[in-house]
Amino acid sequence: MYKRIYSPLSKKMVPITSQEGLRCLEQYIRYNKKHRCPKYKRIVISADYDNCWSIFFNKNCYLLWNEFDEYKHNYKLLKQHVQSICKHAKFVGLFCGSARQSKYDDYQIGMEHFNNIQSKGKNQSLFHKIKPRSAFKDYEYLTKRKKWKLFRLLLADKDNKVRTGSAWKSSKYRLSTKHKSTGELKVAMLQNQLDYLHKLYPSKSIDFYFYDDWDVVISAVTKAIKRKQLRIPSMIRVHVIQFNQSKQSLQQIC
């Protein structure tokens, strides 16, 4: 055990048991508590795409609707939140948390949004800059740029009992019709993702963030958590985030 400690008051080494030494020791302890390195975490994100994380990729859609100021506000809101949860992470993983749970749905839903934008957009001079978006390709690009891990697990893999990532690559694997609503689909999707993480990292502590914009989905997921219908492994903490672009708001629900 150290017997002496440096005192910035007298600028010399003093006995640690002296009054001055004890005062310096107390100050050192307080300083270390305040400035010590934060505990590094493992972060896994399940991100909805349309009207949610798509904001990171479709700037031209906002220009088309003449809503660029709204775009800048929403973009900053989501970006700052993602940065805050990933700031001290030793590992960040990303799932597709969209209803696009197969390659077939990624194309179909992308085309639906594309046609809707073209039929209702205000600034027609920008039509040629708009194209159907693939959530899969955008998430591949994002994870590569951020050096995150992309989990290609989809609910269609489970429905078709095929290897993880099969429905990401091939459009022949489609979702089962047993998912009667988007809320039910998202709960089943999250259960699939949590089970997968628990199997991969059974003894690792993980903070799991689910982002969505739709009230119906948020309600279904929070109810499933409260009623314990969503089985959450003990080493995983689940956080539900609602990012609503139309209301320009982001809040943590649970």
Structure description:
This protein has 254 residues and is an alpha/beta fold. It has 2 domains: 4-35, no CATH class; 41-252. Helix content is 44%, strand content 18%. The protein has 9 helices and 8 strands. A 6-stranded mixed beta sheet has the order 5-4-3-6-7-8, with helices on both faces. A two-stranded antiparallel ribbon has the order 1-2. The longest helix has 19 residues, at 68-86. The mean pLDDT is 88.
Low-pLDDT runs: none
State the shape: elongated
Chain-averaged pLDDT: 88
The protein's oligomeric status is: single chain
Major β-sheet strand ordering: 5-4-3-6-7-8
Tell me the Rg in angstroms: 24 Å
Number of domain units: 2
Q: Main β-sheet: number of strands, strand sense, barrel status?
A: 6 strands, mixed
- Name the helicity range: 40-55%
The secondary structure category is alpha/beta
Query: Helical stretch count?
Result: 9
Q: Estimate the strand proportion.
A: 15-25%
Write the layout of secondary structure elements.
Elements: E1 4-7, E2 12-15, H1 19-35, E3 41-47, H2 59-64, H3 68-86, E4 89-96, H4 103-120, H5 135-146, E5 149-151, H6 155-160, H7 166-169, H8 182-200, E6 206-212, H9 215-226, E7 236-244, E8 249-252
Parallel strand pairs: 3-4, 3-6, 4-5, 6-7
Antiparallel strand pairs: 1-2, 7-8
Helix pairs in contact: 8-9
